[in-house]
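User:
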Amino acid sequence: MIWGTIRRKVSSSQVLGQAWKVRPAASTPNSYRTVPKEALFNGRGFECIQRSSYHIALGSYASKPSRVATSLMQTESFIGLQKRSFSSDGDLVEAVVPFMGESITDGTLATFLKKPGDKVAIDEPIAQIETDKVTIDVVSPEAGVIQKFVAKEGETVEPGVKIAIISKSGEGVEQAAPSEKASSQPEPPKEKETAEKQVPKAEPAPVKEVLPKSRAPSSQPPPKHVASEPILPPKDRERRVPMTRLRKRVAIRLKDSQNTFALLTTFNEVDMTNLMKLRSDYKDAFVEKHGVKLGFMSGFVKAAVSALEQLPVVNAVIDGDDIIYRDYIDISIAVGTPKGLVVPVVRNAGGMNFAQIEKEINTLAKKAADGSISIDEMAGGTFTISNGGVYGSLLSTPIINPPQSAILGMHSIVNRPMVVGGNIVPRPMMYIALTYDHRLIDGREAVYFLRRIKDVVEDPRRLLLDV
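Assistant: Predicted structure:
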């Protein structure tokens, strides 16, 4: 077999981000293979090819001829190639739904960010796909002009489905629009005229045809009645809006949590005087050195890490007939967004200091607010902290985030009269709540856990002395 190839030398430490132009071989089948320090491939489009030091291609697949492929050399034994676009025409390229994650098989085409005839740059978002967890952008594979959309808003789409067709040169786009309008405008009157003429002659026929069609849908209502929620009749001054996929997912997970776990909540209160003084004394120096404000969340994260290290059962989870003890601590932080609740994860929180925690929380919160947070940034987590105090909540019973076993609820800080040294003085107090799975965690461990949170927050010096 004779190969039409191009060859590119690759060093073990080099990082490649250039685009490789690929042309089909003259008269050979299209394929790909690798050899050490070299990458050989011919003109057929490909999505992902991995290369090891063995002379074996680990994976290769293609659908349509491609023009551009980007490569990234991470180590000597790996090359990742990502598809940028596929097209059946030299001038036209297709924008397709990207890979959305291992646990996500489809999504809803929420909205188009552009219109046919708009100019787009390469990698510019043209549509948004709403999934159970995040909103994903569909980007333009090439710079050009959007010729037309081949999908509609509200449709369920899967990875690889075509969303739009883009003309790189922009030719034919302006001509297509008027031709479509011209062809679409005169046709309806003709159809109406012919329909009006044919209606009196075919009056009995439509009646016979409508009856079986009206009976056919009668077999479909059962799926609608499967839901436990009653279907309410329409009323004046009411409007029905379909739930977003994210809201549906949140509703299902929260209800599953109630149905699966033996939920129990215990409470305590924390005197925030010392933590607030610590923040007030060092807030300016903290911002000057670390470039981020010192908040209360980092103190509670450190307190939670200390409590989880002392009571590892709270960091564990039931799996069938077994208990999985996790020797790492990833703290999930509940964040409310306009589209729904998301829970990004602070990885390896036990190895972070106050500044690192604050920076990570700020970064994740900004991504959650603008919808750019990824699925990987929300996956996992061994324990959750929810701060309802930012909304003014005085007391609540949070719901566990599966597959975790406990969640800590923070609340608003309120000055209340407290007895200190035999005197009644005003103190900034916060109620804290721990909802836990009583199947795994006993009341004793839950109370000790909250006591540890209370002790550390009221006296942060315990973190330095590990007492």
